[in-house]
Amino acid sequence: MIIKNTQVAMDTMFVNEIERYGAKNFKACFDCGTCTAVCNLSEPGHSFPRYFVRLARTGARDEILKSRELWLCYACGDCSENCPRNADPAELIAALRRYTIASYEPTGLTKLIFKNNPVYILLTLVLAVILAMLLLSFRPESDVSRWLFQYVDYQIIHYGGILLALLLILSVIYGFVRSVKNYASGGKAKFWDTLKETTKEVGIFKRYLKCDTYDDSYWNGKPWYIKPWFLHLTIFWGFVLLFVATGLDYLFKDPNIEVWWPTRILGTIGGLSLIYGSSLIMGYRVTKPTKIYLRTKMADWIFLIFIWLTGFTGLWLEIAIFAHNHTMLTHFIFLVHIICAAEMFLLFSFSKFAHTLYRPIALFNYYKTKL
Ligand code: SF4
Ligand code: SF4
């Protein structure tokens, strides 16, 4: 973990590459170690985030791709807040994660998404149109479908959708296998103990509670329900609840559309959680209360907007069902809801969402060596 020779020459090609993933100023680091001193998650023998500044500067690609510690960081920004050189080590860690996600994805699409904003926006819009057409193809008898399929062959949409789904599945499998191989630690901890600790970390972000606790922290004294830890939790559990509600609806072919029905209640709580968490985080990204919010990558904005839209349109549909409102507008909102949810799912292994796959694997292997 510790680099013995700190005089290794800078790998300018790699530095430029990581800059394109969003870390703009890490070259300014003069190795003072303040960031590691203030990071409450850094442990003896795991001196991050300074360790990652060294790896990035020296182009240590393999170490970065195999680093389980990269996924320990909660992007609280304490290190960046206290860095005397504005080297923004927290943003470097975020950029290295984007680099890792892109490297685990075999088609090269993620590299494009993270490095090229116009491409990402275009891809998102094109995918939305394809999804809308795909959804309409399920109801070929509707007026809109009849109009649309005069111009576009139904088969193209049909087989295009299947191809896209296949690409997604293969990409997820490839990323999964690579990360399992790369993060394998050979640790000796018992399986169940490791699983318990990993679940706690993934489920309640236990170690995140150690962040933002230093004396001058902006978050000191602020109510818990507006702190980043809680907001990330609301987004995570919002997704889980919506996923469960959708699954139950599908499994039981639930004909009950009353709002008090359990799956509806789960869905409503999930939607409200998503709206709450993503609204406040977007607010922080606009008002920039701390350094961590100074720069937001386009990929992160799109991700947040999709989360918010998924929650908002879902809630709209709940209200429309309650009010027995079945107008064209409600159908349109339903279409937007499905498109947002499907886009997040389809872009899963190609975007920031992929960290939900790699992080638990890395954490599990980390705890295997720690417990
Ligand atoms: S605090 Fe800043 S300058 Fe000091 S080691 Fe960390 S990144 Fe480098
Ligand atoms: S962002 Fe927070 S958790 Fe991550 S390295 Fe910096 S201080 Fe540590």
Write a structural description.
The protein has two domains: 93 residues, Fumarate Reductase Iron-sulfur Protein, Chain B, domain 2, CATH 1.10.1060; 194 residues, no CATH class. It has 371 residues and is an all-alpha fold. The longest helix is centred in the middle third of the chain and has 30 residues. The chain binds iron/sulfur cluster (2 copies). One iron/sulfur cluster (SF4) binds next to helix 5 and helix 6.
Q: Summarize this, please?
A:
64% of the residues lie in helices and 0% in strands.
Q: Helical content, roughly?
A: 55-70%
Rg, nearest Å: 22 Å
Strand content: under 5%
Major β-sheet annotation: none
What order do the SSEs take from the amino end to the carboxyl end, as H and E? HHHHHHHHHHHHHHHH
Number of alpha- plus pi-helical segments: 16
Distance between the termini: 18 Å
The total domain count is 2
Key words describing this protein structure:
371 residues, mainly alpha, Fumarate Reductase Iron-sulfur Protein, Chain B, domain 2, 2 domains, 16 helices, binds iron/sulfur cluster
Strands, helices and their partners?
Elements: H1 12-20, H2 34-38, H3 50-58, H4 61-66, H5 78-82, H6 89-104, H7 109-115, H8 117-137, H9 143-148, H10 154-183, H11 191-204, H12 228-252, H13 262-287, H14 298-322, H15 328-346, H16 355-370
Helix pairs in contact: 3-6, 6-7, 7-8, 8-10, 8-15, 10-16, 11-16, 12-13, 13-14, 14-15
